[in-house]
Amino acid sequence: MTSAGSMGTAPLAFPPTLREVMLRPWWLGMLAVALIVAAVFAWLGQWQLGNAIDTDPPPPGATEQVRPLAEVVGPGEYLSEPLVGQRVEVEGAFVADDFLVVSSRYNDGVEGFWVTGQLRLADTETPTSIAVAVGWARDRASADESAEALNAAGMGGTFTGRIISDEGPSLPRAGDAITEMTRMSPAALLGQWHDIEGLDVYRPYLVLEGGMPLLDEIVADPPEEGSNVNWLNIFYAVEWAIFAGFAFYMWYRLAKDAWEKEVEALEGATGATPPGD
I need a surface site. Which of 18, 52, 125, 158 has the fewest CB within 10 A? Predict the structure, then answer.
C-alpha cells in the first residue's frame, strides 16, 4: 500500500557525476582521438629532441686545417653551417678583365672596398669558377687601380683561403650605378664575368689569404666553435610536449562543459536550486 505522502510524487533524478560522463562511449571515443593526437605530438617532440644534439660535431680547430675545395663543397651546392670559414686550397687561374670591385666592405671595422676575381679551376671536367675576394682597399681609387693592374697581369697557381657562404645580391642604392655591388654575391658577379658559356659556378666564395699587390689582406677570423646543442630544436621539442598535454586538456574541458550543461538542464527541469545559489 502506497502512503499518501508519496502518492503521485516522481522519483528523484540525480545528476550524473563528471566521471560517469567521461566513461560514456562518446567521450571514451574522444579520449582515444586525444591519445592519438598526443602520440603524434610526442613523436614529433622526440624527433626534434633527437636532432637537437649533434652526435658527430667537427673536432675543435677543424676549420683551420687546409682541405681541397672539392672535399668541402661542390659547384652549385650550398655550404653547410659547420664548414663556413673552412680553410681550403684550390688550383686555377684568374680570368682576365674579371677583377671587379665590391663596396661597403669592412676590414677591422674600417669601411672600404674589396677587389674580387673569377678563378677558373684547373683539372675539372667542365669549365668551373669560384668568386674570390683577393684584397681590401681603403678608397675606391685604390681599389680600381688594383683591379686594373690585376686585369692586365693575369695570374695562376695554387691559392689558399676561407670558404664563405654567398651573401646574396642586393638592389643598387639611390644614386649608384646599376653595376654597383655592395654585397659579395657570386650570382651578381657572374652577370659581369666574361667567358661564362657552359660555366659551373660555386655558390660560396673564397676569401684569399695573403692578399694581392696594392691591396691589404682581408681579415677573415676563424669561425667561433659552436655548441653541439641546437637550442631551437629543444624549444620545439618542449612545444610539442605542451601540445600533447593540451590535447588531453581539451578532452577534459569539453567533457566537463558537457557535464555542466547536463547538470544545469536537469536542475532547470526539476526546479532544483544549484548548491550555493
Answer: 125
